[in-house]
Amino acid sequence: MTFYEKKLKKLSEVLYKNQGQIDSVIAVRNYIESNYETDLSLKMLSEIQYISKYHLIRLFKKYYGLTPRQYLIDKRIQKSKEHLVNGMTVTETCYAVGFASLGSFSVLFKTKVGKTPIQFQKEQLSRSKLVSDS
Fold it and tell me: What's the topology of domain 3-70?
């Protein structure tokens, strides 16, 4: 092994010593991405990678800056915006993205977006009509 190969090996051991943790967090994030519309619990997400709930929260926050719950909510809000722009009703959107209650969906949507879902949808529809009329 050459001098440079030894240095590269040592450097990669330092940089990627937490690869197992990184892989676990990525797997949980990918699971959330694929199953955001289902009823996801922290217990279930931690069992996917066989790590404790509390350790998962710490790791997820360390690598993504959000807890798994916050990430899930952001993903659902992002998808709900797409559904609303495509003409789905607020109620249909609420349940399609995995929220259990229309009230909690509306409150979270307004908190994250700054508008109620219906206000957002009306604004987007009026924008699209302006663009199509031009």
Answer: Arc Repressor Mutant, subunit A (1.10.10)
> Quick one: CA dihedral 74, 75, 80, 81, positive or negative?
positive
Instruction: Decide yes or no: CATH 1.20.50 for domain 74-133.
Output: no
Residue type, 46: S
Q: Per-residue pLDDT for the chain (134 aa), expressed as one digit of tens each?
A: 788 788 777 777 666 667 888 889 999 999 999 999 999 999 999 999 999 999 999 999 998 999 999 999 999 999 999 999 999 999 999 999 999 999 999 999 999 999 999 999 999 888 876 666 65
Specify the residue for token string 């040592």: 10
- Say how far apart CA 60 and CA 56 lie, in whole Å: 6
